[in-house]
UniProtKB/TrEMBL annotation:
Gene expressing this chain: slv_8
Bilayer topology term: Multi-pass membrane protein
Function: Mediates sugar transport across membranes.
Main location: membrane
Naturally occurring in which organism (per UniProt): Melanaphis sacchari
Coiled coil: none
Name of this chain's protein: Sugar transporter SWEET
Gene Ontology cellular-component annotations: Golgi membrane; plasma membrane
Length: 270
């Protein structure tokens, strides 16, 4: 298998695993429908997921990377559906709308600021070239923009990539760090029963694949957060070795946790 075939296989594998990870939210939503209401679950993971996918979608559009665009477009759609289902069955609709509006405002602000800065830098660069170019008859035939168009686009695009990539990395690392909200409880009880092993393994596989893919593209904004994701997943997996599972909860509670892929995220009901 040559380099191109490996990269293609890695892109497909990482995309499929990520989509499967996104689909795990359906288990929570099915629970909402069965109960006919939202109990103590929070909408924050859904809103955060939508925000993260939206930023990565925008980042993929800047890079013109079809893999990032397709995967995160699918993620945006899924998280939007999850939020809608949550909104339908929760009694605190006003607070949910506040979270959603805030997330959309953040996305719109980032897109606006990035677009404005890119246009301003292009305008300043063109004006500077026009100022220093000798006035001659030849200037009418060859414009300043046609001389340095490639360098201007490259510079402004790199600025946009840096800004959006940093925010993508930040939101991804915050998402990966969420499971550690229950770390103290696990260490205190010396029991990993509340931690979902399949989801943690899936997170490790997804992070590892995107880490390798980011390494191949030499994209630090894909490498760093997924390296953190791999490290955090390994720490969580190590807890299963240090503190083996001890079923100390009733069967009904155990079944409920089995159908909840995020039981370890103890957040207030939004």
């Amino acid at each position: 298998m040559n380099g191109y075939d490996f990269e293609y296989a890695l892109r497909v594998s990482a995309s499929v695993c990520t989509c499967v990870q996104f689909l795990s939210g359906l288990l929570i939503c099915v629970n909402f429908v069965k109960k006919g209401k939202v109990s103590n679950e929070s909408v924050v993971p859904f809103v955060t997921g939508f925000l993260s996918c939206s930023l990565w979608l925008y980042y993929g559009m800047i890079l013109v990377n079809s893999t990032l665009v397709s995967v995160n477009a699918f993620g945006c759609l899924l998280f939007a559906i999850y939020i809608w289902i949550y909104y339908r069955y929760t009694s605190k609709k006003k607070r949910v709308m506040q979270y959603v509006v805030s997330a959309i405002a953040v996305i719109a602000w980032i897109v606006y600021i990035t677009y404005t800065n890119v246009n301003q830098k292009q305008s300043k660069t063109v004006s500077s070239i026009e100022l220093h170019q000798p006035q001659s008859v030849e200037k009418a035939a060859v414009t300043p923009l046609s001389i340095s168009d490639t360098s201007i686009i490259s510079s402004t695009t790199n600025d946009a990539i840096d800004r959006v990539g940093f925010l993508c990395s930040l939101t991804t690392m915050l998402f990966f760090a969420a499971p550690f909200s229950n770390l103290i409880h696990v260490i205190r009880t010396k029991n990993t029963e509340s931690m979902p092993l399949p989801l943690i393994i899936m997170t490790f596989l997804v992070s590892a694949q995107w880490l390798v893919y980011g390494r191949m593209l030499r994209d630090k904004f894909m490498m760093y957060p997924n390296a953190v994701g791999c490290m955090l997943s390994i720490i969580q997996l190590a807890l299963f070795v240090i503190y083996p599972r001890k079923s100390t909860v009733p069967l009904t509670t155990e079944l409920h946790n089995h159908h909840n892929p995020y039981p370890y995220i103890k957040l207030m009901d939004a």
